[in-house]
Amino acid sequence: MGDRARVVVSVTASVDGRVTVGRDRLLLSEEAGKLWHSLWPEGFMTMNGARTALLEELYAPTAILEGSGTFVIADTGPLELPEATTSYDDFLPDDVVNDPRHRKWFTVVDSRGRVLWTEKGGGGIDLLVLTSRATPTAYLAYLQRENIPYLVAGEDHVDLELALRRMRERLGVTCVVSEAGGGLNGALLREDLVDELHLILFPAAIGGAGVPTVFDGPELVPGALPTKLRLVSSSTTADGVVSLRYEVARSARYAVAG
After folding, report:
1. 153/84 same-domain check
2. What is the CATH number of the domain that holds 83?
3. In a domain? residue 137
């Protein structure tokens, strides 16, 4: 793990690993969100609360990680942005970073600059955007205008490992909890950046080709083996909710087929 922040993937899924009810049905939408939550038995909330408490006890995480796709609303047209900035320096305004009320970063990977934010946090949680040198400079200017902190990590896309190192170096973040969808979690997996998986499964099967799962993204390259996990703990409720905690067996991460 070195000097980067620890990454814990914390996900809720159906028993077949789906993290939403349809390929293009964002859980932030009223219809999909209502259906998704209706699938949770009574025991889910108890199990979810226990997971949150365990993460706090183990690591006191100071950053939550999400992908920008979670917040992109289709067919909104081009973003209206201010005049471009000429700098690709980090933007970490002191009144946000050193606010005594600050507790945690809500961190979003958005190299393409796709989201105009109507909410920037609250209750000690502040928005942090991860960008790259491919992010439109007009979008960076928009973030500056809105006083939204951002880090620049990577050239043509966000370099996740570099971003995790810079979050630790510049903001003191030692643990990141990814509550993202399959695309971002899959990228973290392929780059060998996942340290733990905390998975809650509820008793429903969704199915459907292409429906997002816990880990999506590129397939394994020839000669590579799946990431091996070591079970740390498990528990179940009487109404069928299962909570699993795994550590990544990093020594067995990749192996060449013989």
Report:
1. yes
2. 3.40.50
3. yes
Closest to 194 in 3D by CA, of 249, 254, 152, 232: 249
Rounded to an integer, what is the distance from CA 134 to the centroid of its chain? Answer: 20
* Residue 184, in any domain of the structure: no
The terminus-to-terminus CA distance of the chain in angstroms comes to: 28
Q: Containing domain of residue 76, as a range?
A: 63-173
Query: What are the structure tokens assigned to 116, written together?
Result: 């105009």
Q: What is the pLDDT along the chain (258 residues), one digit of tens a residue?
A: 669 999 999 999 999 999 999 888 878 788 888 999 999 999 999 999 999 999 999 999 999 999 887 776 544 455 667 776 668 999 999 999 999 999 999 999 999 998 889 888 889 999 999 999 999 999 999 999 999 999 999 999 999 999 999 999 999 999 999 999 999 999 999 999 999 999 999 999 999 998 999 999 888 989 888 999 999 999 999 999 999 999 999 764 433 333
What are the E-state strand segments in the chain?
Answer: 6-14, 63-67, 104-109, 121-122, 125-131, 150-152, 175-178, 196-202, 229-236, 242-248
Q: Residues 87, 130: one domain?
A: yes
